[in-house]
Design a protein that fits this description.
It is a single chain. This protein has two domains: about 120 residues, 2-Layer Sandwich (Enolase-like, domain 1), CATH 3.30.390.10; about 230 residues, TIM Barrel (Alpha-Beta Barrel), CATH 3.20.20. It is built from 14 helices and 14 strands. The strands form three sheets. It has an eight-stranded parallel barrel with strand order 4-5-6-7-8-9-10-11, surrounded by seven helices. A three-stranded antiparallel beta sheet has the order 1-2-3, with helices on both faces. Strand 7, helix 8 and strand 8 form a beta-alpha-beta unit. The radius of gyration is 20 Å and the shape is globular. The structure holds magnesium ion. The site of magnesium ion has 5 residues, from loops.
Length: about 350
Amino acid sequence: MSDHIKAVDVAAYTVDTDQPEADGTFRWTSTTIVVVTISAGDQQGLGWTYGPAAIADFVRGELAEVLIGRDPLDVPAAWSAMVGAIRNAGRPGVAGYAISAADVALWDVKSRLLGIGLHRLLGAAREAVPIYGSGGFLTYDDRTLREQLESWAEQHIPRAKIKIGDTDQRDLARMRQAREVLGSDCELYVDANGKYTVKQAIRLARCFAELDIRWFEEPVRSDDLAGLRQVRRAVAPEVTAGEYGCDLVYFQRMCAAESVDCLQADISRCGGITEWLRIAAVAAAHGLQLSGHCAPQLHAHAAAAIPNLRHLEWFHDHVRIERRFFDGVLDPAGGALVPDDLSPGNGLVFKTADAEPYRVR
Ligand SMILES: [Mg+2]
């Protein structure tokens, strides 16, 4: 292969949220996307992650020189070289997110060089990738929550997740409102973002039993594997976690500890598509499905390629940013994303000029 990687470009952009947002353990008013572009031959691959702008500095300072000159067809070799190069920086956090964004760009540039869709390069297991609406922040008033839930219903997305982790009384009131707005046919999920103790989570689940909640995400801290397992054994909804994992071993431990009913992993954090596919295999070996966390346009093609996919998270913040920054985004109407067979790579074009006003690195 003569078209070696010739450039690795990176930039960070901070976009204000449309209103203040909070979950059970965190509040925010802006979101930063770090975009990596890898050039080889006459093609450019696009990858990104969400996190501190320092990720851009890390890609530029630590990863670019590892990638330049490599064969873009040999993604696992490039991935291994990046993982080796960051050993002393530490994989979780900035380094892991940086590797993830670069790995996504590597898979994209490879499929563009080959002139095929990324889902075809990976090998599709399905045509359509189910999604669930995700938002329902604790900062929303009743009217905002209602409008968001209705907007997903209008797009025929048959699954919705809201944040909980306020007082029991308000959590229950918001869950009741969500069930009332969505009706009985829509799957209703809740995410506590690790807010509760084991006993609090079990008690709350008893209180919301009549609401047919199907999914109870991070009822306790996601690194409390024994606590997750205790909740899982005591409550009716599926207990799920995994969004903070940065390497394969994290997910193997979570599965082996029988902590979750469905594993979650985020391509933009876990080590990119390369690692996410391996996480899917670990999950499968434990009889579990995998759900993609956030960044739906980033996950869609890889999600189409794993047999044990549950669904992807159609996360309000990232939906908003991905629509603003990329042409060619996939449409959620009907509750599934369908990767396009006619567009090489991930089918996206970065709108550089539109993004420029938000640039911070
Ligand atoms: Mg979550």
